[in-house]
Amino acid sequence: MTDRVAVITGGSRGIGAAVAEHLARDGFDIAFSYARSEAQANELCKKIEQIGRKAKAIQADGATVEGNRKIIAETVSHFGRIDALVCNAGAYPYTTIDQASIEDIEKVLNLNVRGVMVETREALRHMKSGGRIILMGSAFAGRLPFPGLSLYGATKAALRGFAQGAARDLGKKGITINVVEPGPIDTDMNPADAEGAAALAGFVATGAYGHVGDIARMVSFLARPDAGYITGAAIPVDGGLLA
């Protein structure tokens, strides 16, 4: 048994890894899922343990119901509890709707929407008053500045509605649920020096990409007891993309 446990889906790299490290520094033991990046998952476990917290990496397919259940079940089996759930895993399809396949649609819905709902449902069985659920949305839920983002934007907009409804379901239980909506963030999957990055940065009020730490700090705040009066909110951390 441990004092506080956070679960981060898609946590082996990028924003997920930054969130895991930040929450470890906040005093959480960390369970996180990954799909294929075993070497990066093992490296993150070492970093968390160097911080002085316990770590558990869970290989799972977040696009399946069985994978979503596995993430929660293995966390509870290993740590005995869940205090915070960060639903970070997601797919980023880039295709216009007239070119999208049915498989494209199913994949993004299963991972970005159904996975979040199943993980939340399963985690709530083990979450007590003071629990925190944080969904990783996107500023593209509110503004799609160029073509090719209809599938992705739809799934991230869905998280806003889910959080608003679930906030009503969970409010009197003392459990909060919120959405963090990043703008363009410099990661290995979306580097600030990639082709087309300058065009995207041009839609941002600051004119620049953000950093993974910007998102991790917001998640950290929402996971604290101090944030108990914030629920059902979609909070942009986007450099003014939505301004």
Automatic annotation (TrEMBL):
Under PROSITE patterns, the record lists: ADH_SHORT
Tell me, what is one Gene Ontology molecular-function annotation carried by this entry?
oxidoreductase activity
Pfam families in alphabetical order: adh_short (PF00106)
User: What domain of life does the UniProt record list for this protein's source?
Assistant: Bacteria
Keywords tagged on the record: Oxidoreductase
SUPFAM superfamilies assigned to the protein according to its UniProt record, in alphabetical order: NAD(P)-binding Rossmann-fold domains (SSF51735)
Instruction: Read off the SMART domains from this record.
Output: PKS_KR
Show where the Ketoreductase domain sits: 4-183
Q: Does the keyword Oxidoreductase apply?
A: yes
Q: Give the UniProt family note.
A: Belongs to the short-chain dehydrogenases/reductases (SDR) family.
Q: What is this protein called?
A: Oxidoreductase
State the organism of origin.
Acetobacter aceti
